[in-house]
Design goal:
The protein is mostly helical. The chain folds into 2 domains: 5-67, Winged helix-like DNA-binding domain superfamily/Winged helix DNA-binding domain (Arc Repressor Mutant, subunit A); 78-125. The chain is 69% helix and 0% strand. It has helices spanning 5-18, 26-33, 37-49, 65-74, 78-88, 93-106, 109-125. Helix 1 packs across helix 2 (26-33), helix 1 crosses helix 4 and helix 5 packs across helix 6 (93-106). The longest helix has 17 residues, at 109-125. The chain is elongated. The relative contact order is 0.13.
């Protein structure tokens, strides 16, 4: 299933924040993304309706198995695309991270896959 750029942004935030906290709450996501709590609630409702987070997101935000699969798909090209922005274009870590996520969310999947392969082949040759 293809997610929109906003969903990818939130799913990425949930993945990253879940790695650093035991109980992820809406307020954590709001602070991390620099958005309002009502905006987070609205997007979480959308993600819950899509089956990507559990319905009880008001207490704790948890990805469903479908949500984890979607995050896995989103991040399948992340490593190489991040390498492109960080190592090839020499962007600082945070900017490279942001640009890689933006690239993944806004460009077609086949374009991401093509860039991933180019980076992988270039790194292998070096």
């Amino acid at each position: 299933m293809k997610q929109c750029a906003g969903q990818i942004k939130y799913l990425s935030a949930i993945k990253e924040l879940s790695e650093t906290t035991d109980s992820l709450r809406c307020v954590h996501i709001a602070r991390y993304l620099g958005v309002s709590r009502p905006s987070v609630s609205k997007m979480l409702r959308c993600l819950a309706n899509s089956g990507l987070v559990y319905e009880d997101y008001c207490n704790s935000v948890v990805l469903t198995p479908e949500g984890r699969a979607a995050v896995g798909e989103i991040f399948s090209s992340y490593g190489e695309i991040y390498t492109f922005f960080h190592s090839f274009l020499k962007l600082p870590h945070e900017e490279a991270h942001e640009q890689a996520l933006r690239f993944i969310s806004e460009f077609p999947k086949d374009t991401c896959e093509r860039l991933r392969k180019i980076v992988k082949n270039t790194v292998r040759k070096a």
